[in-house]
Amino acid sequence: MNTSEHRTKSIPLKVWVGVALVAAALALLPFVAALAGQAWVRILNFAMIYTMLALGLNIVVGFAGLLDLGYIAFYAVGAYVYALLASPHFGAHLPFWVIVPLGAGVACIFGVLLGAPTLKLRGDYLAIVTLGFGEIIRIFLNNLNAPVNISNGPQGINLIDPFRIGNFSFARPETILGVSFSGPQKYYYLLLLITIGVIVVNLRLQNSRLGRAWEAIREDEVAARAMGINTRNVKLLAFAMGASFGGIAGAVFSATQQFVSPESFGLFESVIVLAMVVLGGMGNIPGVILGAIMLTLLPEVLRYTMEPLQMALFRRVVLDAETIRLLVFGIALVAIMLYRPAGLWPSPVRKRELEVAATPQ
Amino acid sequence: MDIFLQQIINGLTLGSVYALVALGYTMVYGIIGLINFAHGEVVMIGAMVSLSVITALLGAHAPLPSFAIIIAGLLVAIVVCTVLAYGMEKIAYRPLRKAPRLAPLITAIGMSIILQNLALMIWGRNYLTFPTLIEPTPHNILGASMTDLQMLIVLLAALLMAGLVFVVQRTRLGTAMRATAQNPQVAGLMGIDINVVISAAFVIGAALAAVAGLMVMTYYGIAHYYMGFLLGLKAFTAAVLGGIGNLAGAMLGGILLGIIEALGAGYIGDISNICGLPILSDSMLEKCAASDGQVSLFGSNYQDVFAFFVLILVLIFRPSGLLGERVADRA
After folding, report:
1. What is the phi-psi region of residue B275: left when phi exceeds 0, alpha when psi lies from -120 to 50, beta otherwise?
2. Which of B64, B135, B190, B208 is deepest in the core (most CB within 10 A)?
3. Who among A128, A147, A342 is closest to B100 (CB)?
4. To the nearest whole angstrom, how far is the Cα of A323 from the nearest Cα of chain B?
5. Residue A181 · residue A174 · CB < 8 Å
6. Where are the domains of chain A?
7. Global ipTM
8. pLDDT of A186-206, one tens digit each?
């Protein structure tokens, strides 16, 4: 009682002003981005979807230290659950708020299905099994259109319901209180809300009993078990919770995009999400968010700058923009890792460990 | 019976290629514990370079027998791939040897993206066809056919693997490699230059990859800037299947994976045929009648699922792969 009073009093005005400023900036961001084109609002939305994904993977890789190379499978499961339950494909049109928890739940079940038999595997064996699992899910989605059409195969599922409350659809532009909102801008606020929710849950998880158990397992599994941690259950929980966040991100992706196809869920996507986690700073939530935003924005920024840059330098387009932007992306991945091996924003614990390891004994 | 044998022969051919690539993964993993994600791209570069050299030589109407042309292409590819792998290790992996374990994995992914897009710039987006230099004369073996090319691939792969085993077991370099794999610090204290050993592992792996690249290209007759990805994935799967870090395991895993895939692709349609099950609906029965009683739940497009499924099963029962050693939990 006393402490909580003390705590509320001790938050200085500066912090509140800071929070208000950040909130205002986040609220205005889609309008600033719209000045450069609606495409940029969509890119912001993607940055948030990737943030959710990266945070989910961070639970598995960053907190619990289990290398998962097939994480995108859970994203795919969430996306297809939404697509199948809210599209003309089966004629089902369940509401968003029913399907999102359902997507999380189904993804969670898949997480446990994958985790249960594989948890005794160590390190890189686990990596390849998760990778295989991811590929299996993708291949099934690609081929489950015959003899019974479930996933509609490589064509994917079209005309997915957008998010709507009553008659208020998020897919079409609208004017509210004299301000005109485009579809992506409306989605921005929805995604912002969900992303903040996911971030809060992650922050609370990290400091929970469970979060500390994950960290203990990551550092030393044998010692963790000796301390009375049920390593099997705790690892399974990491898989299940990571998968649930992937499922949520997938369902939201489906609603935003209104179209899904197996192509969006290849191994490359898994690898990029892993790169977000590692490059941002494994196990450190602000770092992971930074990594997700950076790796979403970087290819897009390159997409729009590479051609003008070439025009300015050589007065003609020497190299195809699509190729060179991926090339630069690859170079950036290597360069960032070389200069900051622990990630851009490592967690304080890891940073300390690295410094200890670096000093000669 | 002959279909069965035919699938075994096809699987053996493909499996030999997997095994050669898997050796590259497993040597690097055994010594520095890194999944060299870019290894598949090295195979692709090997295929592309040899294709370019071969087409150039054919275009110049050089008075050489086709065998010599292929050898020339192969040699150039080996040189390019080894230099590439050496440089890659030096730039992207060596500085990170003491970094957190996942850092070099990310640079490996970065290198893979870089190599793919470089290849895209140089060789373009289209499938390139490989000129038929070796006439695929089929030979009848117990009712199945095996072409000259298939025989050549299997024999060459076997020869290379024997050579590698000789190097690793009988030479000074091989001894140094095995020592470094066991414990790099102690090996260093014994006067082994670890950097040389690690570079050697990359270089040998790259040379094998170049050969594998040429093999897979002649076998399928096409090359593509994206071909390294799936091939690398399969080869890595093979290495893990056999027990990563173990040379014999990589060979066994590669050949097994090739055979499993071929058999899976050949028989999965029959196994999952649902006509004849007593629980079919009327519409399904119509479908069966319309297609000669052959409606399969899974077609040969599930070939890759088969490979991964077997891998998962094997790892559940033998968590360190078929020939991998059981690693005790370190306290």
Report:
1. beta
2. B208
3. A342
4. 6
5. yes
6. 33-283
7. 0.84
8. 889 889 999 999 999 999 999
